Amino acid sequence: MGAIRLDIVKKGGENLDYIKYLQKNISTVLDYTQTHFSLVLWAVGISLLLWIPLGMVITKNEKWANRVIGIANTIFCIPSLSLFAILITVPFLGLGRRSALVALVLYAMMPLVRNVYQGIKAVDKNVIEAAKGMGMSSWQILWEIELPLAAPVIFAGFRITVVMTTGIAAIATYIGERNLGRLIAEGLTRFNVEMIVVGALLIAIMAIAMDSILGKFEKRIVPRGLRVRRG
Description:
mainly alpha; MetI-like fold; about 0% strand
């Protein structure tokens, strides 16, 4: 019984250590959090502008679709630290945010392009044939029928991209980004458990919070019958 009480007291003390560390370094933590969120926001925004239109275009050509999705899958298989290291050797990128943005945008290619392509391709062919019979062009069918019906799958890819980007962004600290990943990296170097736990928890909270917000937004714009079930 005494051992259990001692263990509870010890754990309570550890929690206090995390809180004390957070209070003592609140300005630095807030600065890293803002930088981390900014990097994720820019990366996701650029990715949406690039990869959603690309996913739409390749639905018109199966040959190019296989090539593009193959490239996306290959990039996604590259270890993140290796990709960051490769990009910093490019003269106009170098250390810092440019390389981090390019890497994150490249990683976002696979979930976004694939989900847009698969979502549109999964639309019932009978619906498409009926639209053609009404005299609609291929692009009218894409915008007015295929995209709305593919919206749940596309949105699922969007949510995956946001969560994935939030996590991978932490690794950008090794190429000069001053974000929450720096707390983890410096904590490992200094054997400082408080830094590691605070950094990891804040990244997890950020990812969960953004996914929850997107989930609520999805409920507003996607009809219940069309939503993709998430395990």
